[in-house]
Amino acid sequence: MNHSQTGNFNFEPDNLSIPSTHKKRIVIIGGGFAGINFVEKINTKLYQVVLFDRYNYHTFQPLLYQVATAGLEPDSICGPLRKVCKSKKDLYFRMLKVQRVDTKEKRVHTLLGSLEYDYLIIATGAKTNYFGNDNIEKHAFPLKQVVHALELRSQLFQLFEKAELRRGTDEVDRLLTFVIVGGGPTGVEMAGALAEMKKHVLPHDYPEIDFTKMKVYLLEGVDRLLPAMSESSSESSRKYLESMGVDVRLNTFMKDYDGRTVVLDNGEEILTDTVVWAAGVKSNIIDGIDADLNKGRFHVDEYNRVYAPGNQSVYENIYALGDVAFQFSEQYPNGLPGVAPVAIQQGDYLGKSFNRIAKNKEVRPFNYLDKGTMATVGRNKAVADLPLNIRFSGFIGWVTWMFVHLMYLIGFRNKLVVFVNWLWSYLNYDRGIRLIIRPAQKNWEETDELIEKSLQ
Amino acid sequence: MNHSQTGNFNFEPDNLSIPSTHKKRIVIIGGGFAGINFVEKINTKLYQVVLFDRYNYHTFQPLLYQVATAGLEPDSICGPLRKVCKSKKDLYFRMLKVQRVDTKEKRVHTLLGSLEYDYLIIATGAKTNYFGNDNIEKHAFPLKQVVHALELRSQLFQLFEKAELRRGTDEVDRLLTFVIVGGGPTGVEMAGALAEMKKHVLPHDYPEIDFTKMKVYLLEGVDRLLPAMSESSSESSRKYLESMGVDVRLNTFMKDYDGRTVVLDNGEEILTDTVVWAAGVKSNIIDGIDADLNKGRFHVDEYNRVYAPGNQSVYENIYALGDVAFQFSEQYPNGLPGVAPVAIQQGDYLGKSFNRIAKNKEVRPFNYLDKGTMATVGRNKAVADLPLNIRFSGFIGWVTWMFVHLMYLIGFRNKLVVFVNWLWSYLNYDRGIRLIIRPAQKNWEETDELIEKSLQ
């Protein structure tokens, strides 16, 4: 990188203002579930730690659909990363995207300079996978980041305003049709939330619109919803959604979408302005690491060390955690699932492991403890598969879902505000937050770039 | 307007999907304090009412500075206008900007068509006044809308991230300097909030930054802060701010600002990336009304009817309320102040007056009841001038300020969430909301335009 290009570049660029100490330096990329749990556990008396993230906040992704459907403020499900970091000395945060790694020089490179590491931990998570379909990437709404949720919220409420002005025309049918692709938790929860809004919120707000015309489709490629859960939970969630009026299509793929017309694999067409794409993710791989990839993820051993190509040896100082890591286990021959609990436990595990290494204690391999899987469909309607074959559904499943999600939210303020909002919505059949604060357009990549460039 | 230009324009454009009834139609432009209080009071069994606003929400402007300084979520201080409207039949909301009025044809015109009125109420409020200085308009941050507050919040936190990366350079001084222009409530409250963040929040978040370098200037053109309040309140607020480290400059004007250098009228220069412009407003005048303007506002009589030019006769069917209206009273020979209570009382008054007219009851002239003025400077520091020469300051003033602001917030959910946030901040010396979700750039006008165009 040619620093002379970046203007007033008169500070020392090669350490990003991180001091040198006698301690080993751990660089961790990504402030998601894995990253913040690692940071919480690592003993910074034993190591210097530098956390990189392109945003200045942690996002509680499982609740993004509630931001998109006006149930929660974005601020309630995000935690400032500097707050996560502030309790520890010799722990640094840098709001920078790591562009590439040089494993020989042991350096991470950013737009504003580079930093040497002793240990590198990759916890960059995953992003939306469009499987190469540029049309879908261009026209569909993803739901992985706060900006996505805000765009989708603006889109929804702009459509309803528009539908009211177009009352009595055919266009209204298209405006009030929503197609959600992907029957995993995000798709199921999004479809449920839209169906609830249709029933409880929208008819009050838009009394002139005929909401019997509003249609919510949920498309899933395999033969059941929530394929990672038990068959009975799949079945319950489908029944819940259908009872709420969602048109669930199993064994169905979306072949194409041009912004107006969804084409299904059976040739059927659906006219809609809004496709929510929750059909797949791919890992945020970092350039410059010559590693063994499995399903597009960094293949790691039982200590979360990244395998070199050929799968014979590992990098002793490069680790991967969470969605960006691929780890076998006896129970999971196809790799651990890309879910928050795996990331949380791996971050926690690796933090503790590093502390043990520094004290020359033995390090045990990572062992994933499945505490269960849950998804909520709506008011009093949720499914939960817990260990020992315990399954909840209905009201108890729903209360369990709320309790667990509150527990994992960062910070007491967020827990409290989310709880107040949920209680409010429950008692009032309402969703409080319906602001259109930006035009619905897919400008978030540009947004990210502009934020980063502003730091130059 | 040539409707053929706007694409699929196959609905009836000339009534914006508003049905015709035997009742008189009141069109009200603007969902600010005046607008929503009018809507609350008007009896829609007696009139059909159509409310226009370019946003789909009401903004509680007195708390915008708390959004800008990470104390509150934007959603907590905004109320969806459709929610305000939903309790009444024959009350319609249209998220459209009224572009001009044709007083002869009695029609309001929007991008998507026009609508006839029997009565027109203008409650469009005010916007930032740069007094013709394009440089300032281009480079300073206003604080009148939610988008402004979000831009400013992003700006602040981006600057701190940048300052940390630039540690040890002269640039840091400029990044950590904040100039607020205008010593009214917004300026005083903004300066106080920044000084509080400097003391209680930022040093924890950015332990590497030397915050003794952070400077907050507050410039006021006349010889005291809060010129609309009592001299003792002016004096208290100045002392509070100075005790918190704010550099208060009275009798001082900003001559120019190029995005880097503030030039004062005494020739002094201050280097800064952030100027908050709270130095003046001008009314949002609507085109097409041939009216008597006073100080750029629609001159109205004691019934809030708009004067025709020459000040001899009034329009019998055109009214103006709040910041866009200029109304004399004995106590206020220079016109009622442009503050929320005037707008609230006028909206309330006019709604009731219309109800009386329909029942052939006598209508009394508007009488402004001054319930007092308040401003908060920080934790336990506020000033309040109440009627009967009662003045509070310090802790009691501050509690009074909080209580009154909570009372006027729209909706119980907002009151509750704001209260929880304030309690949290008070107990923890914290500000919870520090997300950078968009680049700081002045793109809001474009944003407004894009939102409106999306409705076509």
UniProtKB/TrEMBL annotation, chains A, B:
The chain crosses the membrane at residues 390-410. Pfam families: NDH2_C, Pyr_redox_2. Residues 25-347 form the FAD/NAD(P)-binding domain. It comes from the Bacteria. InterPro entries: FAD/NAD-bd_sf, FAD/NAD-binding_dom, NDH-2, NDH2-like_C. It is an enzyme of class 1 (oxidoreductase). GO terms for molecular function: NADH dehydrogenase (quinone) (non-electrogenic) activity. Its EC number is 1.6.5.9. Keywords: FAD, Flavoprotein, Membrane, NAD, Oxidoreductase, Transit peptide, Transmembrane, Transmembrane helix. It catalyses: a quinone + NADH + H(+) = a quinol + NAD(+). Residues 371-427 form the External alternative NADH-ubiquinone oxidoreductase-like C-terminal domain. The keyword Transit peptide applies. Belongs to the NADH dehydrogenase family. This is NADH:ubiquinone reductase (non-electrogenic). It comes from Marinigracilibium pacificum.
